[in-house]
């Protein structure tokens, strides 16, 4: 794990700890609760992740092929705290994405094994009705995401004339936001949580062949994410 990922994780954990400390100081015990959630999500990367090419050197003599990444189902784990109508959540999701490449030579399409996308999210929810008084509560959600996409092999490395120089593993790192709506349906300590989100990401680092580059312009992706999870409230 490199220092950038460590710094993001430390920042997210710190924010959640601040939320917990605020709850301890401002709320009574019966006004707050902690919970864990196991979720499934349908997630994918779009926009620039559609058989494009990313210049990896300043003179543009070499480029890294950017794959087409389809949507797929993934799983995640969430810890959260609710104080009245406001909740904060820290989540980790992993999704395997169908991956294919279209190389310059002859326009052939080469398929690789599924890429892995790790998504860390810090989300805040506002419930439109008090969950303590209603079994069904709708909410709005706004949050921050950090994504890392690891593509195993079959990533083309080209000279400016289109010659295939080789292949290697690559990693794409980026960050962005989540915004959407959802619902919570409660059965005593067990609850069902579902949401539809808009996820926007900008990728500003790529690591290929042991070297890290900063793409210019940054790669972007925007997609709709559907999540459904089971919650256990303490």
Give the SSE map.
Blueprint: H1 3-26, E1 32-43, E2 52-55, E3 62-66, E4 68-69, E5 72-83, E6 86-97, E7 99-102, E8 109-111, E9 115-127, E10 136-159, E11 164-187, E12 190-208, E13 211-213, E14 219-233
Antiparallel strand pairs: 1-5, 1-14, 2-3, 3-10, 4-7, 5-6, 6-9, 7-8, 9-10, 10-11, 11-12, 12-13, 12-14
Q: Would you kindly provide a written description of the structure presented here, covering whatever features stand out?
A:
By secondary structure, the protein is mainly beta. The chain has one domain: Beta Barrel (Porin), CATH 2.40.160.20. Helix content is 10%, strand content 65%. It is built from 1 helix and 14 strands, in the order αββββββββββββββ. The strands form 2 sheets. It has an 8-stranded antiparallel β-barrel. A hairpin with a 2-residue loop joins strand 5 (72-83) and strand 6 (86-97). The longest helix is centred in the N-terminal third of the chain and has 24 residues, at 3-26. It is elongated, with a radius of gyration of 20 Å. The two termini are 32 Å apart.
Question: What portion of the residues fall into strands of 2 or more residues?
Answer: over 45%
Strand order of the largest sheet: 1-5-6-9-10-11-12-14
Number of contiguous helices: 1
Number of domains: 1
Report the average pLDDT across residues.
78
**Overall spatial form:** elongated
Binned, the helix content reads 10-25%
Main sheet properties: 8 strands, antiparallel, barrel
Topology pattern, helix = H, strand = E: HEEEEEEEEEEEEEE
**Proper CATH architecture:** Beta Barrel
Q: Which regions are unreliable across 5 or more consecutive residues at pLDDT < 50? A: none
According to CATH, the fold-level topology is Porin
Radius of gyration: 20 Å
* Termini separation: 32 Å
Q: Which CATH top level class fits?
A: Mainly Beta
Secondary structure tally: strands = 14
Structural class: mainly beta
């Amino acid at each position: 794990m490199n220092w950038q990922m460590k710094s993001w994780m430390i920042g997210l954990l710190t924010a959640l700890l601040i939320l917990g400390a605020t709850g301890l100081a401002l709320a009574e015990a019966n006004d707050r609760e902690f919970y864990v959630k196991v979720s499934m999500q349908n997630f994918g990367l779009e926009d620039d992740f559609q058989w494009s090419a990313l210049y990896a050197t300043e003179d543009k003599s070499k480029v890294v092929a950017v794959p087409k990444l389809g949507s797929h189902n993934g799983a995640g784990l969430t810890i959260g705290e609710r104080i009245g109508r406001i909740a904060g959540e820290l989540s980790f999701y992993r999704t395997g994405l169908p991956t294919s490449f279209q190389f310059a030579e002859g326009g052939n399409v080469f398929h690789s094994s599924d890429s892995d996308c790790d998504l860390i999210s810090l989300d805040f929810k506002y419930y439109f009705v008090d969950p303590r008084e209603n079994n069904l509560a709708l909410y709005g959600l706004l949050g921050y995401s950090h994504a890392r996409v690891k593509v195993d092999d079959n990533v083309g490395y080209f000279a400016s004339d289109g010659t295939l120089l080789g292949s290697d593993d690559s990693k794409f790192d980026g960050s962005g936001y989540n915004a959407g709506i959802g619902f919570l349906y409660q059965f005593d300590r067990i609850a069902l949580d579902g949401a539809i989100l808009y996820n926007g990401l900008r990728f500003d680092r790529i690591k290929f062949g042991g070297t890290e580059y900063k793409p210019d312009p940054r790669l972007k992706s925007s997609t709709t994410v559907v999540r459904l999870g089971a919650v256990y409230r303490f």
